[in-house]
Design brief:
single chain, mainly alpha, 434 Repressor (Amino-terminal Domain), 7 helices, 65% helix, globular
Length: 137
């Protein structure tokens, strides 16, 4: 069974070259907890809120995508008064990160995204298919 929680943790570790201990120290949680959440195919129960907050701090990501990924790994359904739009955790992290940039840096990101979308659309037209810069894999 694929776990989006495991994938999310693994992608952050790989991207930044972090160890379980690095994440644990930054988040104020135990290394064994980080290891367990990163490697368990399925969680027996939903992690405590303090654990999720510490993991989010340690990974440098918003807590909400982690909460949803942990709930999925534990087989728990989360209910919200206003249901958040279901999105890829990586997209949510990217959006949250962009929000912390300066206005000038956000404009640079917007230009980059627009150029990638335009290039993807042009490639799609040349191939005779629909455009888009989505990664396949």
């Amino acid at each position: 069974m694929s776990s989006s929680l495991r994938e999310l943790i693994r992608s952050r570790l790989d991207r930044f070259g972090w160890s379980y201990g690095d994440v644990a120290r930054r988040g104020g949680i135990s290394r064994s907890t980080v290891h367990h959440l990163a490697t368990a195919p399925r969680l027996a129960r939903m992690p405590q809120e303090a654990t999720l907050e510490g993991l989010a701090r340690g990974l440098g990501v918003p807590v909400e995508p982690l909460r949803r990924a942990a709930a999925e790994a534990a087989g728990v359904s989360l209910y919200y008064e206003s249901v958040p739009e279901q999105a890829d955790p990586e997209v949510e992290i990217l959006i949250a990160s962009v929000c912390r940039l300066s206005a000038a840096d956000r404009r640079h990101v917007a230009v980059l995204v627009e150029s990638l979308l335009t290039a993807g659309a042009e490639e799609g037209e040349e191939a005779g298919g629909e455009g888009g810069a989505e990664e396949t894999g």
